[in-house]
Amino acid sequence: MKPMKPASRKTIKVGYLARVEGEGGIFIRVSNGQVREVKLRIFEPPRFFEAFLRGRMYTEAPDITARICGICPVAYQMSAVHAMEAALGVRVEGQLRALRRLLYCGEWIESHILHIYMLHAPDFLGYPDAIRMAQDYPDVVKRGLELKKIGNAIIALLGGREVHPINVRVGGFYRVPTRRELAPLAEQLKWARDAALETVRWTATLPYADFNRDYTFVALRHPAEYPFNEGRIVSNRGLDITSDEYEQHFSEEHVDYSNALHSTLRGSGAYFVGPMARYSLNFDQLSPLAQEAARAAGLGSVCRNPFQSIIVRAIETLYACDEALRIIEAYEQPDAPSVECVPRSGTGTACTEAPRGLLYHRYRLDETGQILDAKIVPPTSQNQKIIEEDLTSFVTQSIALPEDELTSRCEQTVRNYDPCISCATHFLRLQIERE
Amino acid sequence: MSEPPMDARVLLIGVGNPDRGDDAAGLAVARELASQTLPHVAIHESPGDGAALLSAWQGFDVVVLVDAMPPNGHAGRIHRVDAVAQPLPADLFANSTHTFGVAQGIELARALGMLPRTLIIYGIEGREFTIGSPMSAEVRGAILQVTMAILAELRRKTSP
């Protein structure tokens, strides 16, 4: 590893982005020991899809928005159907509501486990990637693969397909499972719950940077459950609003030094969505097993160290297994797979909790149910500003590290947020340049 | 994946994103092949989740995978790699530290001893990846070439 050049000007530049428009990635400029500039452009907002939805029928929104993200299509579908149902004055309750939570459990398990085992854990254990880690820890990685497969199995059963579920519709589903069809899933989930508990224990042993910030956390909060699809939008600084009020409190600003739009909370600035925000605002709603596992892992009811987000994802995975089993145990097949929807003009909004955090949708419909306009604000968009702030803090604190190590710690800092950089493409190139 | 034929020993995986121009190349080849009558072949479309590949190809002897490749000055160029014989060339599918893609999935399978007996990769170099853009002419031209090459290869591998 090269030692840092003393004083003077230094640039850390990581990565690239979709070769589609200009430069992207992480760019940090340090001069005389001070961080002068942090540019983060790792995410492309789904503007194409917002435009593409215009003129389509409300019934098409779940299928179109599912294509925005290959890793979290369920989240897009859930925000879409809830926003449409709000516009149409429809409520989905009872077993259909429970099935939606079950579907979301599947996505959380699949997404969190992929991140924990394949993307994040190698950072902590000093491996450049999961492949090298797998050579030394094959059983650990196989456990992760098996867990992920069970998350995918839930989505395949309820969604009709592992990727881009086709069974979700405004009002409910096209088809609902029988109790018998869910039974094999319950058996798999019992193993998954044990494996998830093992994952919490394992992630708790990983070495963590000492890094804490007083974040503004934003997440859904529901009086009776850990939030997936429903709840009020709250913060740890007194925010308490409905999704209809979202745009009055959250804005997207153009930032001079970056081409990306930055989400801010009016009067507050950067804010933090995702598992740590959910956890810190809803710890009391976790199942007893998940709460106990969190305490055993050394966490309190609030977590402010983003390097410990890997433990929080493991706890949420454990919760999702627990919740999935509870739903399946209590399941009674509903008489109808969906609630009737009658088109009418209006505007509907919804926020649901994607694996990466709050996902906001808004649609305006005409009297035939055709979409006049749409707005989608994904969690990774909302976290860009807070990631930049973390990078500024972290580099300032760690300025003495050798250059190579500092660069990989910066990547790890970004990975703490499990950013969905490649929402619409499946490959990216990573480049490191030094001035 | 739709129900494969009962005696399917071969899996064709088309990887891609239908909304990003040349990134749809793998899917286009999969759809061309799906329209043929291939009794021993199952067809699977994947968005590029590398970890999911390991379970997708469980139970199959022969796997052929098609995907777009990053631009390198020769849009439409076709690369064929025997992925069991050797590790993938570093530049075949660009890696990212923020996703777990095809190349990583394959190398993970190798590290865990979970590769299929035969794994052939066809890569089509792309040019246009802007979201919402159509496929470039060069890549469209390569789709048919790759389809024919795979058909010929599958006939050799599945003939009695």
C-alpha termini separation of chain A = 17 Å
Round the mean pLDDT of chain A to the nearest integer and report it: 88
Query: Distance between the terminal alpha carbons of chain B, to the nearest Å?
Result: 26 Å
The ordered H/E elements of chain A are EEEHHHHHHEEHEEEHEEHHHEEEHHE
Indicate the structural class of chain B: alpha/beta
Helicity of chain B, in percent?
25-40%
What sort of overall outline of chain A do the alpha carbons produce when their principal axes are compared?
Answer: globular
Secondary structure: helix percent of chain A: 40-55%
Please report which band the strand proportion of chain B falls in: under 5%, 5-15%, 15-25%, 25-35%, 35-45% or over 45%: 15-25%
Model regions low in confidence, pLDDT < 50 over at least 5 residues of chain B:
none
- Gyration radius from CA atoms of chain B, angstroms: 15 Å
Sheet bearing the most strands of chain A, described?
4 strands, antiparallel
Largest interface, Cβ cutoff 8 Å:
A-B, 45 and 40 residues
Principal-axis shape of chain B: globular
Care to count the β-strands of chain B? Answer: 5
Strand order of the largest sheet of chain A: 3-2-1-14
Chain oligomer state? heterodimer
Largest beta-sheet details of chain B: 5 strands, mixed
What's the arrangement of strands in the largest beta sheet of chain B? 2-1-3-5-4
Number of helices of chain B: 4
SSE class of chain A: alpha+beta
